[in-house]
Amino acid sequence: HDLAIRQSDVDAWLRTLTALRLVIAERLGIESDDDHDPDDARFGVYDWLGYRLELIIEATDELL
User: Fold this and answer.
1) Neighbouring C-beta atoms of residue 34, cutoff 10 Å
2) Are 37 and 43 spatial neighbours (Cβ–Cβ below 8 Å)?
3) Residue 41, C-beta contacts closer than 8 angstroms, at least 6 positions apart
4) pLDDT in tens, 1-49
5) Residues sharing a CB contact under 8 Å with residue 20, sequence separation 6 or more, in sequence order
6) With a threshold of 0.90, does the pTM exceed it?
7) Is 46 buried (19+), middle (13-18) or exposed (0-12) by CB count in 10 A?
8) Which of 1, 25, 35, 46 maximizes the CB count within 10 A of its CB?
9) Gap between the Cα atoms of 21 and 47, Å rounded
């Protein structure tokens, strides 16, 4: 499903997803790319959030 984010809500989405990603990184002990274990399913959420953040940033850049 597609998700439409209003331009006025983009900053809130970016802040929220970034905060969630930082909390997960702290809990998993991620301090650098070397700390990432691709075989550990818990890192999937961390990666997914990063991917979503990237998509939002790219979409916003295209609108500007």
Assistant:
1) 7
2) yes
3) none
4) 787 888 899 999 999 999 999 999 999 999 987 888 878 888 899 999 9
5) 49
6) no
7) buried
8) 46
9) 9
Quickly count: other Cβ atoms within 10 Å of residue 45's Cβ. 13
Indicate the residue type of 22.
L
Six-digit token string for 55: 């998509």
Tokens read off for 45: 């959420």
For 8, phi then psi, to 5°, come to -70, -15
Residue 50 DSSP label? H
Task: Report the helix count and the strand count for the chain, using DSSP H and E.
Answer: 2, 0
